[in-house]
């Protein structure tokens, strides 16, 4: 009986996580290029939902992308209509020889790692996320999908101990 309970617990916990196979998107078009999409001005609209699905943040982001040699620099400015969060973030994203990317920003722990898959791109990183009076170290599993050459959808799964604690949905459009 104890093993049956443990098996059921494992099934429930597995159901609380998200695992996307990027290989599924390798043949999908349009091919997504970080540098091409983000060079220039991009406007974004997003929400954050907690584990219960309740919208706890609504925001817009003005992004200015530029190249510093081969490094993509994203200057992000956030405005919140619900909730609060960082006012700005500057990403420095570097292409690597193997086709992957690394990224850094002041509020990101260690180095973000990115990999393109046809019309999709996956970025994973850790950060200390302030929530109310507490700060949690979480992992972002960030997925971008090109809908066309000027429109992008982003889904981020915020995880703690491998479980999805919140989800972020953002639509981005080149200006």
CATH topology: Lipocalin
Averaged pLDDT:
91
CATH architecture: Beta Barrel
- How widely separated are the two ends? 60 Å
Percent helix: 10-25%
* H/E series: HHEEEEEEEEEE
Assign the CATH superfamily: Calycin beta-barrel core domain
CATH class bucket: Mainly Beta
Q: What's the β-strand tally? A: 10
Question: What gyration radius follows from the Cα positions, in whole Å?
Answer: 17 Å
Largest sheet: number of strands, sense, barrel closure: 10 strands, antiparallel, barrel
- Domain module tally: 1
| Main sheet strand line-up | 1-2-3-4-5-6-7-8-9-10
Protein name: DUF3833 domain-containing protein
Pfam families: DUF3833
What labels would you give this structure?
175 residues, mainly beta, Lipocalin, 10-stranded antiparallel barrel, 10 strands, globular, DUF3833 domain-containing protein, DUF3833
Provide a brief overview of the structure.
This protein is mostly beta strands and 175 residues long.
Structure description:
The chain is mainly beta and 175 residues long. The protein has a single domain, classed as Calycin beta-barrel core domain (Lipocalin), CATH 2.40.128. Helix content is 10%, strand content 62%. The chain has a 10-stranded antiparallel beta barrel with strand order 1-2-3-4-5-6-7-8-9-10. The longest helix has 13 residues, at 2-14. The protein is globular and about 40 Å long. InterPro entries: DUF3833 (IPR024409). Pfam families: DUF3833.
List the helices and strands and how they pair.
Elements lengths: L1 H13 L19 H5 L1 E11 L4 E14 L2 E12 L5 E8 L5 E4 L3 E10 L2 E12 L2 E15 L2 E10 L2 E12 L1
Antiparallel strand pairs: 1-2, 1-10, 2-3, 3-4, 4-5, 5-6, 6-7, 7-8, 8-9, 9-10
Protein name: DUF3833 domain-containing protein
Pfam family, one: DUF3833
Organism: Marisediminitalea aggregata
